[in-house]
Write a structure and sequence with these properties.
- This protein is an all-beta fold.
- Helix content is 0%, strand content 53%.
- The protein is built from no helices and eleven strands.
- The protein is globular, with a radius of gyration of 14 Å.
Length: 118
Amino acid sequence: QVQLVESGGGLVQSGGSLTLSCVTSGIIFNQYRLAWYRQVPGKQRELVARITSGGSTYYAASMNGRFTISRDNAKNTVYLQMNSPKSDDTATYYCNADRLVAGSRDYWGKGILVTVSS
């Protein structure tokens, strides 16, 4: 059974910092790309950042260098460090795992709420 479990969310002040974690189980972690998405009510889920199995990273332009994604293959965990968050970063953040293999499905965590106070 595959599980992705997010933690580390909650209330953070604008300009502060917060680190989200996502622990995975049931997948061969080092074969998967890992990503963080976020969603606010009434809007589509959007990609925040992705890290490949080889460690290459991609960030949505709106992150403006404020967020850092990383992975620890020994701990089957992916992280999202959020520096200087803004009120617009308030959202539910989701962890995602997928592989670039035909027919392979992707997996999602249940999400964790991050609220940025001004």
